[in-house]
Amino acid sequence: MIARGIVGAGIGVTAVVCPMYVSENAEPSRRGFMGVLFQLAITFGIFIANLIGWGLSASSLDLTLTWRLMLGIGVISPAALLVETIMYMKEPKRLDQSEVDTMNNINQTLDEWNEKNASSASSYTLINGFILETVLACILQLTGINAVMYYGPNIIAKAGKVFAQNQNLLNIGIGFFNFVFTIFAVIFVERLGRRPLMILGTATMSVALFILGIVYIPQLNARISEGNLGIAVGINLIAFLFGFEIGPGCLFWVLVNENFPKEHPKYKEAAATYANVLQWVLNLVVSLVFPSVADYPMPTFIFFGSVGIISTVYLVLVMKETRN
Prior knowledge:
- The protein has 324 residues and is mainly α.
- It has helices at 2-25, 31-58, 63-72, 78-86, 97-113, 115-142, 145-157, 161-165, 167-192, 194-215, 218-221, 226-246, 248-255, 265-293, 297-318.
- The protein has one domain: MFS general substrate transporter like domains (Growth Hormone, Chain: A, Up-down Bundle).
């Protein structure tokens, strides 16, 4: 447990620093593309981990050995490769003092020209920036992605006996689609922009979650055959993953570093760190609560869908395009 805590600390720091480092070094026209590659690597890792886990569970190895192998394999490539990469990293170029002084002089002149409006606009921008960071963290976690990724087999098993018998293999399918849909975001993030993809993705997720909630209504279950129920659950889980990966799953890491202008690095870095801490806290909440409510999938998925609908409306009204 101590070792897992150390791993968690490392992942927490990495989740903040890596996207921020990419954001600070990438050209504006490529920043979204480079930022989305972070999520592509995550989804690829999840898919490979599912394959390894399934292979170990299907092997004749003793259980006391398989879980050690599952955790230990991570040392072989990803962790060692990251350590090697860090050796060649340079600190990103920041504004030097003369550039900061120039910007301060410009801001001071603007303040003198219209102090009240400039002050109100600045406060309004900062407050809305932090609110948007909060909403992004809620979309990332309170729409249930980790309930699906952590407890996918349990959700699949509730669709019937046939699906329960193959739940681990079907869970690999979830990881596969999760990875493939991330490629869509890689292709379109610079062509379509952040705002359209974010709104489309969140809306798609919300609809899929509501349908999942409806499918699990007990009275409706009695009228649907086991096969049709499984197909309905599978289609909507795939639709949910599609919406998540073209929207918040990929763009969270990009947007938390683009909501604040570069000339305010202390706000940008504080906000990005705050958003990451909040999303990990919400991740923990979902992870702890979902097992207790897993036997009530209808209200659970309706709750996830409601968070998505409210967030979609907020994004339509408030979110601005941050591309370039």
